[in-house]
Write a structure and sequence with these properties.
By secondary structure, the chain is mostly beta strands. Helices cover 0% and strands 59% of the residues. The protein contains no helices and 11 strands. Strands 2, 4, 5, 6, 9, 10 and 11 form a 7-stranded mixed beta sheet that branches. A 4-stranded antiparallel beta sheet has the order 1-3-8-7, with no helix packed on it. The protein is elongated and about 50 Å long. The chain starts with a strand and ends with a strand.
């Protein structure tokens, strides 16, 4: 079984920074894409940033220039700078296209989420 554990959320003032981490564990052979999503109260979950195995990155327009996604094998990071109150949300890590040593392929896994609150 594959597990994702996020860390790094918290309360920060507008203009501040936070760094989120997500580590995937289990009998993982390969993960095609690792990404961060977020869900604000009463809103749908949205993609924030993604990092593919070919090192291609993709960002939501609302975070371009402020957030940076990086990846080290099965760990993904999200450096968030110049945070705004509208960035307040639960941030979820996603691992997609997971291949395991047990032979499963193409599975998608989610972390439990970490809360980011941007407020003065």
């Amino acid at each position: 079984q594959v597990q994702l554990v996020e860390s790094g959320g918290g309360l920060v003032q507008p203009g501040g920074s936070l760094r989120l981490s997500c580590a995937a564990s289990g009998s993982i052979l390969n993960i095609a894409t690792m990404a961060w999503y977020r869900q604000a109260p009463e809103k749908q979950r949205e993609l924030v940033a993604a990092f593919t195995i070919s090192a291609t990155t993709n960002y939501a327009d609302s975070v371009k220039g402020r957030f940076t996604i990086s990846r080290d094998k099965n760990t993904v990071y999200l450096q968030m700078n110049s945070l705004k109150p509208e960035d307040t949300a639960v941030y979820y890590c996603n691992a997609d296209g997971v291949m395991t040593y047990s032979g499963s392929y193409g599975m998608s896994y989610w972390g439990k989420g970490t809360l980011v609150t941007v407020s003065s």
